[in-house]
C-alpha cells in the first residue's frame, strides 16, 4: 500500500512531465514563429518591392503592404502569447504548486482535489491541473474554514465542503515535505518560511497568505481602502498580492499603465522589484514622491525642497497679479510678452474659477499666436526666404523637397510654424506664467505646494490612472495626500501604514484620512509575522494599544544590550559584533536620521548607506539611517546610539524606537553610550 507521500510524489512527477512537454511544444512554436518572421522579411525585400509607377501599381503595392502588415500583427500577437506562456511554464517548473484542497460539492459523493500554484496550467489534454492562487476556488484555501464553506465565482456563491488543506514544499519535480493544516497558528510552512534568512530583495510568497491578509487582497470594493497594520504584519506583501489579484481579476478592464505605486525611497523600490514578476505580473509604474514631482514640475521648480513642516494652501483663494505673468522667449522678431498675456487674462470672467480663467487665457493666446503666424507667412520677406531654401533646408523643414508646381502659401505657413515651434511649446507648457513668483507669494517654497498650484492652473492631471497604492502613508503630510488626490482624480486609493511608525513630526494622523479619502474603509492587521516573539514583545510594550499583538514566530533569542561610558569602549564592542558576523550574513546598524555620525568611520569592514543608496549589500555589516531602514527587514540588527535626542524627541521618539526595533527578525542588539531610553523599561 502506497503512502500519502508516495502518491503525492507520483502526482508531482506526472505534472512535471506534462509541464516539460508543454515547454517543448512552446519552444517548437517559437522556432516556427521565428521562421515565419524570416519568411515575411523575405517577402518585404523580394515580392513586395514598392512600385508606384502607375495608379494600378500603387493599388497593388498598397494591397501587398496591407497583407504583410496583417501578417506581422498576427505574428507579434503570437510571439507575445508564446513568451507569456513560456514565462508561466518556466515559473511552474521551479515549483509546480504549493497547496492542495480537497472539496466535496453538493449532491456529490466523491472528493475532488485542486492543486494551487503561482499560475494556472491546462495540460495538453485540455485538463486544468493547476489553479492560479488568485482564482475563485483558491479562496477556500486561504479562508481556512473546514467543513461547509463557499467561494464566489461569476457573481454566484458556490457551496462546498473543505475536507483537506495540504501544503507542499517542492523543488522542481521533488517533493520535500507536505503538511496537513487547519489553522494559521499551526501553519508549519509559514513558520519554515519565516525562519529562512532574509535576502536583499523581497520574495513573493503566496503559499503562506493568512486569512486576514486574504480578506484584504480579495476585497472587492470601489471605495478607498486603508490597511492599518502593526510592524511586520505583512502590509508590503499584501500590497503586491492585492495588485496582482486586481490585475488578474480585472484583466479585461484594467491596463498595467493604469496602476501606480508610490514608494518611500529608491532602496525600497529595488527591494521589492522582483515581487510582482514572481507573482506572474509585470510591475506597474513605481515612483517615489520626489520622482513624481520631478516628472510633473517645470524646470524652474524642479529643485524645490519638500518642506519639513506642513504647508497648507487654500487653492480656491489663489489669486494672480501682473507680476505673475512673464514674456516668452522665441529668439525671433515676434514673441508674446507678459503684458499681452496679462491683458488676455483680464478679459476672462472675473467671477469664474481661477483655473478656468487660465484655460481660457491659454486658448486665447493660442489663437492669437496662430493669427500672427498666418500674418507672418503672408509677408514678402517670408515668401522670398521660402523660395531661397536649399534642398537640405527643405528636407529639414518639410521632410521632402518642394515640387515646382506646388502652391507656396501653405508651405510658407508650415515654414513659419516650424520657425516658431519653440514658442508654441513654451505656450503649451504655460511658460507665460511665472510659477516661481506665484508660489513664492503664496507660502514657503515647497515642492508639494508648487505641484498643487502647477497642476491646478495647468490642469495637468492623470485621469486614466484607476488604481493607486501608497505604502508608508504615515510618512506623508496631509498636503501631499491632497496632491495625490488632485493628480489622480478618478483613482481608487489603497493606502498602507502604521500610525506608530510615523517617525517625523507633523505627518498625517490616521483620524484625518477620511477627510481626504471619502468613504474610506479601514482594515487592521494585528499579527506579527516578521519578528521573533521576544522582539515583538519588546516593541509591543511601547504603546498601550499593542498589548493584544500576537507573534507567530517562536520566542527566539532574547534581545541583547550593549552600553559603554566612553566612545572607545562603545565602538570596540560594536566592532566585536561586526568581526564575529558569519561571512554569509548581514548586520544592519541602524542609526538616528540626520547628520552622519563621524565616529562610525572608525569601524572596520562596514559599508555606509545613504539616501542615495539603491541596493542593499549581499553580506557584511552596513550602517543606514532609520529613515532608510523603514519598510525593510534584517536578520541581524544593531540599534546605534539610543541615547541620542532623536529617540527621546517628545512627539515621535517612542515611534522611532518602535520602528527601529521592529526591523529585526531574529537577533537584535540595543546599544547606547550611557543608559538606554526610559521607554525601553516601560
From TrEMBL:
The keyword Nucleotide-binding applies. Keywords: ATP-binding, Helicase, Hydrolase, Nucleotide-binding. It comes from the Bacteria. The keyword Hydrolase applies. InterPro entries: DNA_helicase_UvrD/REP (IPR000212), P-loop_NTPase (IPR027417), UvrD-like_ATP-bd (IPR014016), UvrD-like_helicase_C (IPR027785). Its EC number is 3.6.4.12. One of its GO terms (cellular component) is cytosol. GO terms for molecular function: 3'-5' DNA helicase activity; ATP binding; DNA binding; hydrolase activity. One of its GO terms (biological process) is recombinational repair. Gene3D superfamilies: P-loop containing nucleotide triphosphate hydrolases. It is an enzyme of class 3 (hydrolase). This is Helicase IV.
Amino acid at each position: 500500500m502506497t503512502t500519502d507521500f508516495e502518491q503525492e510524489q507520483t502526482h508531482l512527477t506526472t505534472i512535471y512531465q506534462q509541464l516539460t512537454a508543454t515547454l517543448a511544444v512552446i519552444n517548437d512554436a517559437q522556432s516556427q514563429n521565428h521562421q515565419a518572421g524570416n519568411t515575411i522579411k523575405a517577402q518585404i525585400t523580394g515580392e513586395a518591392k514598392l512600385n508606384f509607377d502607375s495608379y494600378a501599381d500603387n493599388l497593388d503595392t498598397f494591397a501587398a503592404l496591407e497583407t504583410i502588415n496583417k501578417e506581422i500583427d498576427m505574428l507579434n500577437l503570437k510571439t507575445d502569447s508564446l513568451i507569456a506562456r513560456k514565462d508561466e511554464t518556466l515559473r511552474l517548473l521551479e515549483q509546480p504548486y504549493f497547496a492542495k484542497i480537497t472539496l466535496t460539492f453538493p449532491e456529490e459523493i466523491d472528493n475532488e482535489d485542486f492543486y494551487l500554484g503561482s499560475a494556472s496550467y491546462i495540460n495538453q489534454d485540455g485538463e486544468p491541473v493547476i489553479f492560479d492562487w488568485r482564482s475563485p476556488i483558491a479562496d477556500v484555501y486561504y479562508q481556512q474554514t473546514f467543513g461547509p464553506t463557499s467561494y464566489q465565482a461569476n457573481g454566484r456563491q458556490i457551496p462546498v465542503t473543505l475536507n483537506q488543506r495540504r501544503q507542499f514544499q517542492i523543488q522542481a519535480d521533488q517533493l520535500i515535505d507536505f503538511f496537513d493544516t487547519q489553522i494559521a497558528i499551526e501553519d508549519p510552512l509559514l513558520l519554515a518560511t519565516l525562519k529562512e534568512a532574509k535576502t536583499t530583495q523581497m520574495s513573493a510568497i503566496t503559499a503562506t497568505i493568512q486569512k486576514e491578509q486574504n480578506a484584504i487582497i480579495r476585497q472587492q470594493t470601489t471605495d478607498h481602502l486603508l490597511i492599518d497594520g502593526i510592524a511586520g504584519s505583512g502590509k508590503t506583501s499584501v500590497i503586491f498580492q492585492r495588485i496582482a489579484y486586481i490585475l488578474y481579476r480585472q484583466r479585461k478592464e484594467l491596463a498595467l499603465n493604469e496602476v501606480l505605486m508610490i514608494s518611500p525611497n529608491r532602496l525600497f523600490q529595488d527591494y521589492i522589484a522582483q515581487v510582482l514578476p514572481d507573482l506572474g505580473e509585470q510591475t506597474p509604474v513605481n515612483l517615489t514622491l520626489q520622482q513624481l514631482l520631478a516628472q510633473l514640475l517645470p524646470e524652474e521648480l524642479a529643485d524645490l525642497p519638500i518642506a519639513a513642516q506642513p504647508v497648507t494652501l487654500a487653492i480656491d483663494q489663489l489669486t494672480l497679479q501682473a507680476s505673475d505673468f512673464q514674456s516668452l522667449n522665441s529668439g525671433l522678431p515676434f514673441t508674446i510678452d507678459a503684458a499681452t498675456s496679462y491683458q488676455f487674462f483680464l478679459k476672462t470672467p472675473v467671477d469664474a474659477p481661477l483655473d478656468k480663467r487660465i484655460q481660457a487665457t491659454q486658448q486665447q493666446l493660442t489663437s492669437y499666436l496662430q493669427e500672427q503666424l498666418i500674418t507672418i507667412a503672408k509677408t514678402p520677406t517670408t515668401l522670398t526666404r521660402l523660395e531661397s531654401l536649399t534642398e537640405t533646408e527643405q528636407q529639414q523643414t518639410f521632410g521632402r523637397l518642394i515640387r515646382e508646381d506646388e502652391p507656396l502659401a501653405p508651405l510658407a505657413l508650415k515654414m513659419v510654424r516650424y520657425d516658431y515651434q519653440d514658442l508654441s511649446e513654451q505656450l503649451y507648457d504655460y511658460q507665460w506664467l511665472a510659477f516661481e513668483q506665484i508660489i513664492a507669494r503664496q507660502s514657503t517654497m515647497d515642492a508639494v505646494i508648487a505641484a498643487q498650484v502647477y497642476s491646478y492652473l495647468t490642469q495637468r492631471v492623470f485621469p486614466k490612472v484607476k488604481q493607486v497604492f501608497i505604502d508608508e502613508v504615515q510618512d506623508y503630510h496631509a498636503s501631499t495626500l491632497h496632491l495625490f488626490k488632485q493628480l489622480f482624480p478618478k483613482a481608487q486609493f489603497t493606502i498602507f501604514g502604521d500610525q506608530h511608525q510615523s517617525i517625523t513630526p507633523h505627518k498625517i494622523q490616521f483620524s484625518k484620512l477620511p477627510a481626504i479619502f471619502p468613504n474610506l474603509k479601514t482594515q487592521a492587521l494585528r499579527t506579527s509575522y516578521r519578528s521573533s516573539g521576544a522582539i515583538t514583545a519588546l516593541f509591543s510594550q511601547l504603546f498601550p494599544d499593542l498589548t493584544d499583538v500576537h507573534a507567530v514566530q517562536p520566542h527566539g533569542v532574547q534581545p541583547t544590550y550593549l552600553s559603554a561610558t566612553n566612545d572607545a569602549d562603545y565602538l570596540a564592542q560594536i566592532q566585536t559584533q561586526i568581526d564575529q558576523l558569519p561571512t554569509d550574513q548581514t548586520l544592519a546598524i541602524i542609526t538616528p536620521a540626520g547628520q552622519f555620525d563621524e565616529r562610525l568611520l572608525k569601524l572596520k569592514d562596514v559599508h555606509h548607506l545613504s539616501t542615495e543608496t539603491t541596493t542593499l549589500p549581499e553580506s557584511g555589516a552596513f550602517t543606514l539611517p532609520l529613515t532608510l531602514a523603514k519598510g525593510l527587514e534584517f536578520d541581524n540588527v544593531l540599534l546605534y546610539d539610543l541615547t541620542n535626542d532623536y529617540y527621546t524627541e517628545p512627539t515621535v521618539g517612542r515611534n522611532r524606537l518602535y520602528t527601529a526595533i521592529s526591523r529585526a527578525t531574529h537577533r537584535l542588539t540595543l546599544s547606547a553610550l550611557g543608559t538606554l531610553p526610559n521607554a525601553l523599561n516601560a
